[in-house]
């Protein structure tokens, strides 16, 4: 009998890639999504698979199904989307986690939480290790997501201690690739769309702030390796790419790969935007035998080719 896996947010960018990987590897997949940021187009190629089922559902409401594993990915992940309805973002993080943890408790399922590098806030430690507690503004415009995800981690570890639940908490760093929403406000999609349209490329601040970009295939390999690991390996676990780039360097790569004539324009840095972001991946390398393989140039080429098909 196939292992039955529930993916919340399964029609989103990461969720759809995960659903496809699970089906390719002989799992029975149930996708739930409210389509607030996910898209039916992302899972259209999966609908004819007899081992794939999708249900429209809001994770802030209880849900029940006989299940073996849960990947809890449901939550808007870009500032444009999670700041649009901040109270709902916090509810999705907190109530969504409670509902999925309760489902895992009832069905004795193993559950993975898609946490985020945003739990580190604007970090004083660089690169960020899992034992760093972070520097987060609890009342800022990003707090609905940052603190929502931090509270979700608290819930996961409390359920582990209180109910001996099999949990996995993955702290996911900036991830990009095909199926990204072209209008989600993330820097990779912004730069590519602007370059393809010949529009000015918007750089916030002076462009020397850094990020580390992980191609989606590497990230999916990381979270699935983590799910399959020992029950005693709970995390938190950094997953991402530790090659660090400034925004100017990213913009230059996009311009070169798209052969665009777009010009850079500079706007003020958004409030509470982190200055540096780079994961320490030693824990993942040691405990999961995992590290990213796809270079930024190679990943950008795949992502640009995807956007060329959908951007008009």
In terms of topology, how is this protein built?
Layout: E1 4-8, H1 13-24, E2 28-33, H2 40-43, E3 52-56, E4 69-72, H3 79-82, H4 86-107, E5 110-116, H5 143-163, E6 167-172, E7 175-176, H6 187-197, E8 201-204, E9 210-212, E10 214-215, H7 216-227, E11 237-239, E12 244-246, H8 247-258, E13 264-267, H9 282-288, H10 296-310
Parallel strand pairs: 1-2, 1-4, 2-3, 4-5, 5-6, 6-11, 7-10, 8-13
Antiparallel strand pairs: 9-12
Helix pairs in contact: 1-7, 4-5, 6-8, 6-10, 8-10
Question: How is this structure best described in words?
Answer:
With 312 residues, the protein is an alpha/beta fold. It has two domains: 4-176 and 216-239, Rossmann fold; 187-211 and 243-277 and 294-310, UDP-galactose 4-epimerase, domain 1 (Alpha-Beta Complex). The chain is built from ten helices and 13 strands. The chain has helices at residues 13-24, 40-43, 79-82, 86-107, 143-163, 187-197, 216-227, 247-258, 282-288, 296-310; strands at 4-8, 28-33, 52-56, 69-72, 110-116, 167-172, 175-176, 201-204, 210-212, 214-215, 237-239, 244-246, 264-267. The strands form four sheets. The protein has a seven-stranded parallel sheet with strand order 3-2-1-4-5-6-11, sandwiched between helices. A two-stranded parallel ribbon has the order 7-10. Helix 1 links the parallel strand 1 (4-8) and strand 2 (28-33). Helix 1 (13-24) crosses helix 7, helix 4 (86-107) runs parallel beside helix 5 and helix 6 packs across helix 10. The protein starts with a strand and ends with a helix. The model has no long low-confidence stretch (mean pLDDT 94).
């Amino acid at each position: 009998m196939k292992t039955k896996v529930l993916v919340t947010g399964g029609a989103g960018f990461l969720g759809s890639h995960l659903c496809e990987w699970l089906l390719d590897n002989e799992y029975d997949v149930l996708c739930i999504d409210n389509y607030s940021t996910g898209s039916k187009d992302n899972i259209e190629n999966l609908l004819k698979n007899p081992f794939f089922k999708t249900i429209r559902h809001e994770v802030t409401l209880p849900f029940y199904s006989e299940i073996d594993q849960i990947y809890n990915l449901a939550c808007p992940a870009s500032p444009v989307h999670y700041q649009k309805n901040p109270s709902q973002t916090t509810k999705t993080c907190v109530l969504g986690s409670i509902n999925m943890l309760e489902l895992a408790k009832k069905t004795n399922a193993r559950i993975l939480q898609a946490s985020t590098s945003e739990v580190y806030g604007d970090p004083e430690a660089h690169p960020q290790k899992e034992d760093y507690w972070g520097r987060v503004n609890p009342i800022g415009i990003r707090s609905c997501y940052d603190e929502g995800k931090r509270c979700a981690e608290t819930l996961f570890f409390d359920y582990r201690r209180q109910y001996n639940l099999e949990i996995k908490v993955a702290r996911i760093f900036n991830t990009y690739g095909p199926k990204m929403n072209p209008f989600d406000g993330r820097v990779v999609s912004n730069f590519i769309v602007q370059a393809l349209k010949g529009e000015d490329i918007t750089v916030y601040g002076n462009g020397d702030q850094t990020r580390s970009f992980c191609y989606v295939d590497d990230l999916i390999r990381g979270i699935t390796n983590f799910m399959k690991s020992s029950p005693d390996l709970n995390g938190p676990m950094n997953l991402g790419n530790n090659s660090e780039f400034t925004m100017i360097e990213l913009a230059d790569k996009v311009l070169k790969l798209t052969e665009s004539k777009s010009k850079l324009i500079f706007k003020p840095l958004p409030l509470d935007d982190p200055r540096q972001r780079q994961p320490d991946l030693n824990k993942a390398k040691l405990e999961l035998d995992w590290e990213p393989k796809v270079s930024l140039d190679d990943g950008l080429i795949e992502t640009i080719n995807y956007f060329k098909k959908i951007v008009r």
